[in-house]
Amino acid sequence: MTSLYDFLETNSLYIVMLIVLIIWIGIFGYMRSLDKKVKKLENNE
Amino acid sequence: MLLKNSFLVFKKDLSSELRTRYVINSLLMFVLVTISIIKFALGDEKVDNEILTGLLWIAIFFTSVSGLSRTFVKEEEKETSTALKLSTGTDSVIIGKLFFNLILTFALNLLILILFILITEYQIKNLSGFLVVIVLGNLGLVSASTIIAAIISKANSKGTLYPVLSFPILLPLLITVINATKLASLGVETDKLFGEIQILVSYFVVVTVTSLMLFKFIWED
Amino acid sequence: MNKFITYLIFIIISAVIILGLALPIPDIPALGDKARVLYFHVPMSWISVLAFFMSMWYSIRYLKTRDINYDIKSFSSAQLGFLFCILATATGSLWAKFSWGSFWNWDPRQTSIFILLLIYGAYFALRSAIESEDQRAKLSSVYAIIAAVTVPFFVFIMPRIVESLHPDPIINTQGKINMDSSMLTIFISSLVGFTMFYLWMLNLKIRIEKLIYKKLSLIE
Fold first, then answer.
1. C1 vs A14, A35, A41: nearest CB
2. Span C160-178, mean pLDDT?
3. What gap in Å lies between CA C109 and CA C156, rounded to an integer?
4. How sure is the predictor about C169, in pLDDT bands with cuts at 50, 70 and 90?
5. Which residues of chain C approach chain A closer than 8 Å at the C-beta?
6. What ipTM, to 2 d.p.?
7. Which chains touch A (3 or more CB pairs under 8 A)?
């Protein structure tokens, strides 16, 4: 367990980066799909 | 012409108020209740001016919140707003209402102040500065409350919406005026309060000018 | 919005996240690596103020033209501003915890962001209390303008009177964070990237609201 704790401690910045990056990619993907859906609906009008 | 019409609106409000005494009676009771709650809460405790100033402004703020919204709500409830709209111009309505609220607030604040000083042994070291700050604070309070009252008179949930809408608008004024009142009561010279007084004056001017410009959008249908 | 621009936004913000956390930053006393929250906190608060004033601008346009499209723009901007305001409060609060010792201590800057939250809340409360679309648009526009003229009292005047610990080159020069060139570059690209992202979100939000209004046949 100590080794895992040490690993998390020394690499905390990169772990934060990874999590933020995953969240950002999720938000971006959601926005893109929303954009596509809205475009489709606008064309149907 | 504008001033004459405004004065007529003011006189109409005043005489209808004196006839029913609806607002005045309830506000007088409100003031008495608030002051006595403060008295019971404090007991025989000797309290600093810092806390007393806060309590004073709590009393002033909630009295005006419960009273000032009546001016426009009353017109909507009694369905007299159309008659008022037909009989006089937009600007005279807002100026007349502003004057009425101003007189009402000044009268009530005088009462609150006298009762408050009598009950809590509030020491004011710089009386002239204190009065200047209180008057300027009231001017800002009234001008912001009147336009908010006009907005909520057209909305559905009139009573609950009023404090929600007016609080964020009034907060810059309240923080400044509470600070300035505290300093004046502790005996700080008036010219040292110049920064606060500047803010209070500019707040009053800015809000009044904006409400005069925007009132026509609320009032027309 | 153009596909190219959205990918540009993606690249900028991803680069800010990666480089902002990976590149070394100048030593800042008592904060260290935690100062990196600056790359996210400052754009959030900038956008919440920007969105608020854009909302006011569209409110003025609405009152001038009585075109319901401006009202849609106004409240879309306000909703996004509210979201960013919450994010700014959260990131600022975290920062305050590490730099001042508590999450919330009524610093003038915290008070002003709190007021901004209250104003947004009051604006939505007012909107939900009025049923007729025209009346709602009109009254909330008036309220947004009145709120906007009182906001400068907070943002610019209050911190001058009450002492603030907030690091900000305009308000409080003592608490300034000295940025070196790489940090400054990342900071500015973060501002640009998030502002573009906000504009994209606003564009999308307006289009969705317009579709809803069309569905209810309120606009052509």
1. A35
2. 53
3. 10
4. very low
5. 1, 6, 9-10, 13-14, 17-18, 21-22, 33, 200-201, 204, 207-208, 211, 214
6. 0.88
7. C
Tokens of B220: 């027309």
**Per the CB < 8 Å rule, is C17 touching A20?**
yes
Question: Tokens 């002033």 correspond to what residue?
Answer: B60
- 10 Å CB burial of residue C120 (0-12, 13-18, 19+) is buried
C-alpha span between B177 and B109 (Å, rounded): 14
Tens-place pLDDT, residues A35-44: 999 999 888 8
How many CB atoms neighbour CB C11 within 10 A?
11
Confidence at residue C85, expressed as pLDDT on a 0 to 100 scale: 92
What the block records as the tokens of B155 is 């909305």
Greatest mean pLDDT among A14-18, C10-14, C30-34:
C10-14
Q: Long-range contact list for C100-107, CB < 8 A, 24+ apart?
A: C100/C165, C107/C164, C107/C165, C107/C166
Count of other CB atoms within 10 angstroms of residue C189 = 17
Tokens representing residue B30 in the block: 């409100």
pTM (2 d.p.): 0.87
Other Cβ atoms within 10 Å of B96 Cβ, number = 24
pLDDT (tens digit per residue) in B136-188: 999 999 999 999 988 888 887 667 888 888 888 998 888 888 888 888 888 87
Query: At CB < 8 A and 24+ separation, what contacts does B193-201 make?
Result: B193/B129, B193/B133, B195/C161, B196/B133, B196/C161, B197/B132, B197/B133, B197/B136, B199/B172, B199/C153, B199/C157, B199/C161, B200/B133, B200/B136, B200/B137, B200/B139, B200/B140, B200/B173, B200/B176, B201/B136
